[in-house]
Write a structure and sequence with these properties.
The complex is a heterodimer of chains A (about 325) and B (about 260).
Chain A lengths: L41 H17 L8 H8 L3 H4 L4 H20 L4 H21 L1 H4 L4 H30 E5 L14 E5 L13 E6 L11 E6 L7 E5 L2 E4 L2 E2 L15 E4 L4 E3 L14 H12 E3 L3 E10 L5 E2 L2
Antiparallel strand pairs in A: 1-2, 2-11, 3-4, 3-11, 5-6, 5-8, 6-7, 9-10, 11-12
Chain B lengths: L10 H10 L9 H13 L3 H14 L4 H13 L3 H14 L4 H14 L2 H13 L5 H13 L5 H10 L5 H13 L3 H14 L4 H13 L3 H14 L4 H12 L2 H8 L6
Helix pairs in contact in B: 2-3, 2-4, 3-4, 4-5, 4-6, 5-6, 6-7, 6-8, 7-8, 8-9, 8-10, 10-11, 10-12, 11-12, 12-13, 13-14
The chains are: A alpha+beta (about 325), B mainly alpha (about 260).
Amino acid sequence: MECPNCQFQNTPGIAVAVRCATALNLGEIDIHPPRRGKGLFRPIYWPRLTRLKASIGLLRIPIHWSVRNVFWFLIPGLAQKGQQPRWLGKWLLRGWLLSLLLWVLLAGDSLSMFMYGIALSIHCTSLGLWFNNSLARLNIAARVLVGLGLFVGLHYVVYGAVRYAGTGLVVPVRLEGIRSQGLIQDGDIVLRQGWFFRPASFDRGDLVMYEVGATGGHQYAAAGIGADRIIGKPDDHVVFKDGQLLVNGKPVAASLRPLEPLPGVSLDLRAGPGQYIIIPSLFILQAHGVGQSQINALYAMQSKVPERAIAGKLYWRLRPLSRFGPLE
Amino acid sequence: MPGRFSHLEFDDNRRRQERQRPPGVEQPSAAQYLQLADDEQHWGRFEPALQFYTKCLEENRRTVPAWVGQVQMLVQLSEYHEARLWADKALEIFRNNGELLAAKAQACLRQGDRKAAYACSDASLQVEGSSPWRWQARGEVLLESGEKLHESCFKKALAEAGADWFDRIIIAQMYLFYRKASAAFEYARKATELRPDAGYTWFVMGNTQRALGLAAAADQSYSRCLELRPDFLEARAAMTDSSADSFIIRVLRRLGWRRS
């Protein structure tokens, strides 16, 4: 009896082929293949779902976790150095580094985010080229989706982590709408301490950035950010009257006073526990059609700043470049 | 009969068919059914081809090419899961059969299981003997992986004894599946040169031209196919679709987009 599989001539009556173990008696074997159903739902959507499943399978990017591959993933252009054309990897890496450099140098400027976008795009391009073989098997819509996924993933995960770590060190801030002509001027970009370096408590004279809460009632002041020197610490008594500033009954040195001369207001403030006195001198508090007592009340309200509202010290001026340097 | 049982052929149907058969006309043998299945496959009619392969097995369950054909047809009908199941079943019967292993490799690959596809393809080539199909399946595995070596596998498949025009069509369809329309076009062109009288070659040629965004050339190819077989509805439908394609769709097709 000849085996249909290996063509070996077996002894008659034997159940399985001697050489390949193929069953020789196939009389009871079902020969109708399983078929996909033809229900109402499946013929319309099942092929698409199957294709989607196959696409996901095809998308399985053959990366094994090695130090080299992690570097290739994180630094664009490195993966292309092993691929053709080699110059592409070199230029991708250069473009990415340049974009990152400009992103940092232009920090605080709107152009900075543009450079960040370019760096991110270069990174996505590099990864797209690296995964080219896997992506080539997908249709154009799937490729667009994968590209978007890469972009979003890099932005929120990889670069998000870098940005979060970066804001732990320093945060660039552009100060706009201020009246100061001295140490800080309108449009200056300054650096403040990040959350990692922010001290637990501050001293008198520290130049800080803080959150301004909206004043209730007539909404004289809008919420935003403020920047000025700390005049009084918790439990200090601050009096400002007739141009004279007294803290706990003693006059304040010029280097510890607010950055700008204060308008004609009279203040008598006592900082509560966990409160600092910061008299806003850079930002113009407008109060039209109200009496001096109400203006004094507004200043008093704005000058008491809770400790948690202070973001950190300002310590460096980035721009304009002509005044680049420490804020002293 | 709706649902999953619609493909089943019950004895009642069979008896009815036998009653309808004119007296004196013998039931086709397994070899004849195999030939009919191959003929249908050569016209790209995979559902009838699958049914003929099944009928062939009804006559003779030991016909290995019919088992292979069933798996191949299931893959062509995009029933990859079923194809893989059936390949496994067939391999339980015909252990280490090279052709079946190659067919399973293709089913696994289309399912997205590249690792299993490689294993099956490796096994199919290790088994004694050789055939165009084994090398074609190997070529597809490498093509899917983006390996340049797939070209030499396809060349090896065509260099095998018994390779004919339809093997070029199979390769062209593999390329089309992976959106390599220009490579598919080359193989389809060679197939039309070898067998200009085979209508299906023109149909595949039309498909490759359409994928390349060459709508006018595709229409000509479909027309040629319809000249050879006016009742080939697939070509007529493709021709209608092709002429309905807007400019944007054509551009998207050239970019590799495939409408479901």
